[in-house]
Amino acid sequence: MAQDILKELDDIQVASLKSLEGVQDEAGLQAWKTGNLGKSSPLMQTFTQLGKVEAALRPHVGQTASLVKQALESAFEHRSQQIKQASLQSNLAGEWLDVTLPGRQPIIGRLHPVTLTLRQIVHIFGEMGFQVFRSREVETDEFNFELLNIPAYHPARDMWDTFHTTVPNVILRTHTSPGQIHVMRKYCPEPIRAILPGMCYRYEQMDARHESQMLQVEVLVVGKHITLGDLKGTLIEFAKGMYGENVRSRFRPSYFPFTEPSGDLEIECFICHGKGCKACRGSGWLEIMGCGMLHPTVLKNGGYDPEIYSGFAAGMGVERVAMLRNSVEEIRYFYGNDIRFLEQFS
Question: Model's pTM, two decimal places?
């Protein structure tokens, strides 16, 4: 019995080492290890037969089996190193890297021109003591229209093409003016000097001057003895800060349901200097924002007594201000993701 096991061990060693020479990759190595050193391999099965060997020869047979196992393990490790080295050399030959080549310079990002314009707007109003407040973009019909003196039957609702949601009376806000009510109800009866930037949404035909999504800034002042002179002085100061000290500006009558009286602030066309051109449509002036004194109904809905308090509001499109400031002809350029256009701003 002992001689049979010893001969079997010798045959296992010779056959295993010969088959190992034909292994060429990692997958083959693992398969060889399982078949020759695994629990079910012929070598490991010989250890279960030691109990049948004569007691005197049992140590010699066990030692021989252990030596065969060690030899196979050593051969496996050696072949594994050979295959890894060959794989490394193959990768180096096929995927070499020239460390002497100059590195790729990282691209330094820039702020978007609309972001730059918004920051300038915030800076100018900040120097005049205004604080920045954010209000929600998903609004109720009540805050977006009703509390701003625009009831359901009011023809002024035709001025806004509204995006409605599947929830009744919940919409995407069409302007930043609903923020007026939120701020007034939060701080009443304290005086307010605030700007409210944020996105607005309107179902409009997109062209050179209109987008379905736009960034606006709402200006709100509430207090005692606030007059039309305060409105004009504040907005003229803003125009100078944005377009230069020598900019000429004017106010023209307009209409907004939530202000009375209402107007538009215009600046002299920076291209034709008031002579009339394509940019200003021959008028010599460019509108930059709408404005007006707060309607008593809006003040009352915000919690303020219109007999004691007064105020003014204004609203501007940031993209439009950026267009006028940088002589950009189309609003669509700002969101076209054309790097050639965006890299012009720093």
Answer: 0.67
